[in-house]
Design brief:
The complex is a heterodimer of chains A (323) and B (298). Chain A has 323 residues and is an alpha/beta fold. Chain A is built from ten helices and twelve strands. In chain A, the strands form two sheets. In chain A, strands 1, 2, 3, 4, 6, 7, 8, 9, 11 and 12 form a ten-stranded mixed β-sheet that branches. In chain A, helix 3 runs parallel beside helix 4. Chain B folds into two domains: 44 residues; 225 residues, MetI-like fold. Classes of the chains: A alpha/beta (323), B mainly alpha (298).
C-alpha cells in the first residue's frame, strides 16, 4: 500500500509542475523581446526586421519575397503578432519597420521618440477595405453602418437575424453569432472606432478569434455567423456584404475601385513605421514598396494600392502631422 | 587508502547533487509563485481594482476607451462549465476503463490498451484544439442544429479526452494497490466479479480513485490551447451546453502577449494567474491530502 501511494503522489506533482512551467513559459514569452535587431547572415549583407499587423503579414511577406529578387543583398524578415507587437518591437529596437493597420497613438509615438530621440516616420503603403463577411447561404446582401453598430455595439438592439428580417437555411435558431477579433488586434480597434464610434464598446459574447483568416474560416463553416476581416481574406463559402453609410444611400461592394474612389465606407490606410533615422536600405525598400512594382503586389494580394489622384494622401508623412 | 577517500568524496558529491535536484522543484514552484504574485499584486492594492467587481461582474473590457472594466465572472463561469462537463464525461469513462484494464481484461489486451491510452495523452493540445475547431465544430452544428459548434460541449468533450489518460493510469494504480487477498476473499465468499468490484474493490480504492479524478480536474482547469480554440472564446455565463464560453487560461493566452508590461491590463492578467494558481494548488493539495489519508489508514 505504501509503495503504491508513493507512486500516486509522485504523479500528483506532475500536473502542478506542468502548469507552473506552462505559466512561466508564457510569461517568459511575453518578456523575451531582447533578441538582436538585425543580424547579417551569410547570403544577405543587410537584414531588415519587419514586424507587426496580422492583417499585413501576407502582404509584407509577398513584398519581402519579391524584393529578394530585386535586391539580393537585402533580406527582409517578416513576422506578425499584431500591430501592438510591431509597435513594441519598434520601441525596444528589435524591428526596423513596424507594420500597423492603424495609426500609432500619441503615447506610442512618445515612447518611440523617447527610445530613439526622434519621432517615428509614418508611411502609407496601401489600403485595406474591411469586409463584412456572412455565410454563403445568407440571403442578406446589403448592410448599413448604423445596423452594424446596432449588431456589434454594447447597447445595440439587433440580436437575431429575425431583427433584420433574414432567414438563413442551416441556421434554425436564427441566433446571430458575432465573430470578432481579440482586443489587441488593429482590426478590432479600427472596427470599434469606425463602426461603433468613439468610446463605444463591443457587445459581450462576441467570439474573439485570434487571426484575420480564422474569422473568415469560421464564418464559412457557420451559417448563423457574421464577421469582419480584411477583404484580402475572402474565400469560398463566404460572401462579402455591400455596405452603405446611411440607410437609403447606395451600398458599395468592398473592391479596389470603390476603395480608391473612397465610396466604400470601411477602408483604412495601412502603415509602415520606421525609426526617425532608419537603417541603410530601409528607405530604399519603402520607396520600392510605394513604387509601381511594389503596388502591383498590393493589388495581387487582395488589398488596395495607393494612387495619387483619388483624394487619398500618399507617401511619407511625418508622424507629427496626424489629424 | 587513497581510493577509499575518493569514494567517500564522490559519494557525498553525488548525494549533494541529488539533494539539489530534489530541492530545485521547491525552488521553482516558489519562484513562480513569487513572480506571479509580484506582477499582479501591485494593482490589487492600488485602488484602481475592485475584487468585488472582479469576482461578480461579467463585464470584461480591458481595452475599452471610455470605461475599462475587469469583471472575470464570465471567465470563471467559462472555466467551471467546461471543467464540469469534462469531468462528467471523463470520470465515468476513466474509472470504467481503469476497472476494465485492471480487473477484466487479459494480459495482452491490457498491454495494448495501456499503450493506446498513453498515446492519447501524448497528443499535443494544439492538435486537440484544431480538431475542435474544424471537425467537432461542423459536427456539432449538424447534429444539434446549434448556431455555433465552438461551445461548452466541444471544449468539454476535448478536455475529457485529454484527462481520461491521467484518470485511467492513476485509477489503475489505485486498483492494483488493493491486495489480492481482498479479491480472493470476495470470490471465495461466492461473489461474482461485478459484485467484487462494486462492493470490495471500489470502496477499498476509493481514495486513489478520488485522487485520480482530482488530478483530471487539475488538468482540465489548466488546459489552455485546446480550450482557446474549441470554446469559441466568447464571454458569457452559459445557460446551455451549446453556448460558446471563454476560460481564464484562454484569456491570459490571448491577451498577455501584447499588453504593455506593468500596465493595469497586464497586472489583471496576472491576478487571473493567481486565481488559476490557487485553483490548481487547491485541487492538487486536496488530491495529496486524500492520498495521505490512504497512507494513514494503511
Amino acid at each position: 500500500m505504501r509503495k503504491i501511494s508513493a507512486s500516486i503522489r509522485r504523479r500528483g506533482a506532475a500536473p502542478l509542475l506542468a502548469a507552473s512551467i506552462a505559466l512561466s513559459v508564457l510569461i517568459a514569452g511575453g518578456c523575451d523581446r531582447e533578441s538582436e535587431s538585425s543580424r547579417t547572415n551569410g547570403r544577405a549583407r543587410l537584414v531588415i526586421q519587419n514586424i507587426g499587423s496580422d492583417t499585413m503579414v501576407n502582404l509584407a511577406q509577398a513584398w519581402a519575397e519579391e524584393y529578394a529578387t530585386v535586391e539580393p543583398a537585402v533580406s527582409v524578415e517578416v513576422s506578425g503578432g499584431g500591430t501592438g507587437t510591431g509597435v513594441a518591437a519598434l520601441i525596444n529596437g528589435t524591428a526596423d519597420i513596424a507594420n500597423c493597420s492603424r495609426q500609432m497613438d500619441a503615447g506610442e509615438i512618445a515612447k518611440v521618440s523617447a527610445a530613439d530621440g526622434q519621432k517615428p516616420k509614418q508611411n502609407i503603403v496601401g489600403y485595406d477595405a474591411l469586409a463584412i463577411f456572412a455565410h454563403k447561404d445568407n440571403p442578406l446582401e446589403d448592410i448599413t453602418i448604423e445596423r452594424l453598430a446596432a449588431i456589434y455595439g454594447e447597447k445595440g438592439q439587433i440580436r437575431s437575424w429575425a431583427d433584420l428580417g433574414v432567414q438563413i437555411p442551416g441556421c434554425r435558431s436564427g441566433e446571430m453569432i458575432l465573430v470578432s477579433r481579440q482586443s489587441n488586434s488593429g482590426t478590432y480597434h479600427y472596427f470599434r472606432e469606425a463602426i461603433l464610434g468613439k468610446g463605444v464598446d463591443f457587445k459581450l459574447g462576441t467570439l474573439d478569434l485570434h487571426g484575420s483568416k480564422d474569422v473568415v474560416e469560421l464564418v464559412s463553416r457557420t451559417p448563423c455567423a457574421i464577421g469582419y476581416s480584411g477583404m484580402g481574406y475572402a474565400m469560398p463559402g463566404v460572401k462579402m456584404l455591400r455596405v452603405a453609410r446611411k440607410p437609403g444611400e447606395t451600398a458599395f461592394a468592398p473592391n479596389v475601385e470603390n476603395t480608391q474612389t473612397g465610396a466604400y465606407p470601411i477602408a483604412r490606410p495601412l502603415y509602415m513605421y520606421t525609426h526617425g533615422v532608419p537603417k541603410d536600405g530601409v528607405n530604399k525598400y519603402l520607396n520600392w514598396i510605394q513604387s509601381e512594382a511594389g503596388q502591383a503586389i498590393v493589388r495581387a494580394t487582395g488589398y488596395v494600392p495607393i494612387i495619387k489622384d483619388a483624394g487619398l494622401r500618399v507617401a511619407v508623412e511625418e508622424g507629427a502631422k496626424r489629424p | 587508502m587513497r581510493r577509499r577517500r575518493w569514494e567517500l568524496i564522490s559519494e557525498s558529491l553525488v548525494e549533494w547533487l541529488i539533494r539539489l535536484c530534489g530541492v530545485s522543484a521547491i525552488v521553482f514552484v516558489f519562484g513562480i509563485f513569487y513572480f506571479v504574485f509580484r506582477e499582479g499584486v501591485g494593482l490589487l492594492w492600488s485602488g484602481r481594482f475592485s475584487v468585488v467587481q472582479f469576482l461578480t461582474s461579467i463585464e470584461w473590457y480591458p481595452t475599452s476607451q471610455s470605461h475599462v472594466r475587469y469583471g472575470a465572472l464570465g471567465l470563471i463561469a467559462g472555466t467551471l462549465s467546461v471543467t464540469l462537463l469534462a469531468m462528467a464525461v471523463a470520470i465515468p469513462f476513466g474509472v470504467g476503463a481503469a476497472i476494465y484494464v485492471s480487473e477484466f481484461c487479459g494480459p495482452r489486451a491490457k498491454e495494448t490498451l495501456k499503450i493506446i491510452i498513453e498515446l492519447l495523452a501524448a497528443i499535443p493540445s494544439v492538435v486537440w484544439g484544431f480538431i475542435g475547431l474544424t471537425v467537432m465544430n461542423s459536427l456539432i452544428i449538424k447534429l444539434f442544429n446549434a448556431p455555433i459548434g465552438l461551445n461548452v460541449l466541444n471544449g468539454g468533450v476535448i478536455l475529457a479526452l485529454m484527462s481520461v489518460p491521467i484518470i485511467v493510469s492513476i485509477g489503475e494504480d489505485a486498483l492494483k494497490a488493493v491486495p489480492d487477498s481482498y479479491r480472493e476473499t470476495a470470490l471465495a465468499l461466492g461473489a461474482t466479479r461485478w459484485q467484487m468490484v462494486r462492493r470490495v474493490l471500489l470502496p477499498a480504492a476509493r481514495n486513489g480513485l478520488l485522487a485520480a479524478a482530482l488530478l483530471g480536474v487539475g488538468r482540465a482547469v489548466g488546459e489552455t490551447m485546446a480550450v482557446l480554440m474549441a470554446t469559441g472564446h466568447s464571454i458569457r455565463i452559459p445557460t446551455s451546453l451549446l453556448e460558446p464560453v471563454r476560460t481564464l487560461t484562454a484569456t491570459i493566452a490571448a491577451e498577455l502577449g501584447e499588453t504593455a508590461v506593468g500596465s493595469d491590463h497586464y497586472q489583471v492578467l496576472f491576478i487571473i494567474g493567481i486565481l488559476l494558481f490557487s485553483i490548481t494548488f487547491f485541487v492538487n493539495l486536496s488530491a495529496d491530502l486524500i492520498v495521505r489519508g490512504i497512507r494513514g489508514k494503511a
